[in-house]
Amino acid sequence: MSRDFSAIPVIDIQGLFSADAGQRRAVASEIEAAARDVGFFYVTGHGVPMAARERLEGAAERFFSLPMARKMEVYIGLSENHSGYVPEGEEVFSSGKIDRKEAFDVGLDYAGPPRGGMLGPNLWPDLEGFKADVGAYYAQVQGLARVLFRGFALALGQPEDFFENRLSAPPAQLRLIHYPFDPDAVDAEGIGAHTDYECFTILYSTAPGLEVLNGAGEWIDAPPLAGGFVINIGDMIEALSNGEFIATSHRVRKVSAERYSFPFFAACDYETTVEPLARFVSGDRPPRYPRIISGEHLFAQTAQTFAYLKRRIADGAASLPQGAQALESFGQQARSKSAV
Asked: Tell me, what DSSP letter sits at residue 304?
């Protein structure tokens, strides 16, 4: 596979909602091709109302306009399940560069006790309408994720309901990310190049800036598509496919305009075992990935990028799971390392 793509394909996924199995398989075939050749694709025909996205954007604008002291009242380091406000400099990828951004992270508003550092009740700000608007969008995009999970199951050559019993209480996260106006911005990384840790990501953003790395080492623009979402596969799907589908590295270049980005990271249940599926393994193609636990992988990767979790590990209040993968263990960057 050359993966020397120059554009991101567009897939109308309306067929995944059809009662006709043939229409669902046809969309899954397009997903499979995009996952193999690009690792990214746009989706239309998804059914998420524009009004839900508009209310989410309004909630983000209201929250990020608060004084810093108000935002720090819900600092993510005060939570037990990785939810809350992420100030600039809190999150650093392996490049060591500090990204010019702030964020607010929410997950499944889990009623049970916090689990694994990634699952529990959200830390919500005292801001009128914020929880309702963000929670409503979370529910909408979570529903879309379940539909896409069925499409990915077929793309992987599995029964359509392959993921169903792995989605009872997943630690799926929604991020509200704010890139402030920066008149001195230069063409460099806004978010360091990385892959996403979960199965796949559903992204809505308000302005260009996202770039995707192709097989030739070129950065390809992936601007917002009116009414659509950007989808990219993550580490878990790469592992399930034994590397047939590669989690494509991506970054956000710096732009002067104010920008909001809302990625939803679709994950399986915390205890889900992830390893190469039998159809992708043979004598000529042995397993490339160790067996991992979904929630443990998510926590391990997160703990290696967030300052508050690094402090907890250094203080002995938390620890990385046994066998935790280092950052950049998936995608083109991992392939480049292994080839050296």
From this structure: T
